[in-house]
């Protein structure tokens, strides 16, 4: 299944990324190459194989339900591109 | 709402319940509601680069409780997934949720319909995920303001099968879900504050038709009343379209509580493509039989079981048992009361009428009710010993709301204790009859209507404290005796 220019544009749009025509063509080539590479797996019969979601075999890494304060509001807002004293501020979002 | 008997509605609900953990699902920030904006945040829930989420074990336990209470299959292993979309209230650009492997699936709950019949509603899945923050659109004309305190609060999403056939059934189902999460102590169920939220998928079809119609999704129904109205409105709208030969367009609608209508969301295209993929930062949850057994042991007696037991153990009618087991706290109050009195039905009557009335008038939870179960039982005991008339008991109940002393002390102080002792009433009866020889003669000649007069006089002589039942009997007996004396004298 080949990646088309339209796919590249759709994925870029979902990721809120803007590319030049040249970049899009390069991405189209690269994405196709990656898919071809992964396509090799289809040569194997994997019908009875559980999907591998992690390469390590850990399970149930959990923490107790305890509150810990890390940072203040001032610290939280310090790295924001825009903020007032209480809130993060972003361009108007219309729902 | 059956304006169109030849159509039926098909409704499925997605309910989000905020779990009552102390800390968030993947970080240690507090989940407290109503705190100053952006005070309960940290690099993890703010989505800073390089941080890693760590799962809160309590959130898993709470989700499992709900799964067990709704007869779900519990996945022995389940994974988290990333649901990708951009919105400012979701700083990571994805929500950690579950996709292919929900923690719980294929369960059911039972709802009760208006005609008293019961209906089983399928639960497709219950999965664990994180809440998003809150956007404020109306505070600043040029910007949206974002508060991320809620971001990362644990949620379970409970997805019903499309088994609901009317707005009333949908509300009954939602109330059942709320009752369950409250019994389980995993969510406060407050729709106004958003700790319980509900989206609906709704379509209509001609009765007898197997195929489903095109569905719409309704969001933003933050009360039971709105759920009912929004669904009724949307069903009506869809039927009108079909009747006019127009198609129903698959879309997401918002319920507008001011205009009382559903209208399309103004999001740019609604073709959501979330590109789910397995969350690489979290390892799977493994639920062993031991873990499940431990969770099962934390389950309280559920409302249906408790209702059945109230009927069997206390001989209550189903109606009483249902009201008393509506919430776990009310049922606890009833049982604490009947621990001090054997008059189970009287306890039920007091709670269903007087206690619930006061709670309603004062918008107060039963846990804050000023009359402790033991004192209510004491009041019932005074009635049972026949030392209190029903109106006096009512008066003392009102006083007990403000005065913490026991009912007998209050009754004595208010001089409301009733005299039921014959030895105390008899002399009063004799005195009244002696003082009214003419009336006694008239009565004995057949003017029996005077009975009330004698009783009234005795009651007055006792300052209202004589037991009217006993008084009536004694007056009759004494009149009878005088008739015999009269007869023998003649």
Description:
The complex is a heterodimer of chains A (95) and B (490). With 95 residues, chain A is mainly alpha-helical. Helices cover 37% and strands 6% of the residues of chain A. Chain A has a domain at 5-43: Orthogonal Bundle (Histone, subunit A). In chain A, helix 1 (5-14) crosses helix 2. The longest helix of chain A has 19 residues, at 21-39. The mean pLDDT of chain A is 90. Chain B folds into 3 domains: 7-292, no CATH class; 301-413, no CATH class; 422-489, Arc Repressor Mutant, subunit A. Chain B is 40% helix and 19% strand. Chain B has 490 residues and is of the alpha+beta class. Chain B contains 15 helices and 17 strands. The longest helix of chain B has 22 residues, at 468-489. Chain B has helices spanning 57-69, 167-184, 224-243, 289-298, 303-314, 318-324, 328-338, 344-361, 373-384, 390-402, 407-413, 422-435, 437-444, 451-461, 468-489, and strands spanning 7-18, 55-56, 73-74, 77-78, 81-84, 94-97, 104-112, 118-130, 134-136, 143-147, 154-160, 196-206, 216-219, 252-256, 261-264, 277-278, 285-286. The mean pLDDT of chain B is 92. Classes of the chains: A mainly alpha (95), B alpha+beta (490). Chain A binds chain B through residues 14, 16, 51, 53-54, 56, 58-73, 76-77, 79, 82, 84, 86-95, and chain B through 21-23, 28-30, 36-39, 41-43, 46, 48, 54-60, 77, 79, 84, 86-88, 135-137, 139-140, 142-148, 254, 265-267, 273, 275, 278, 280, 282-286.
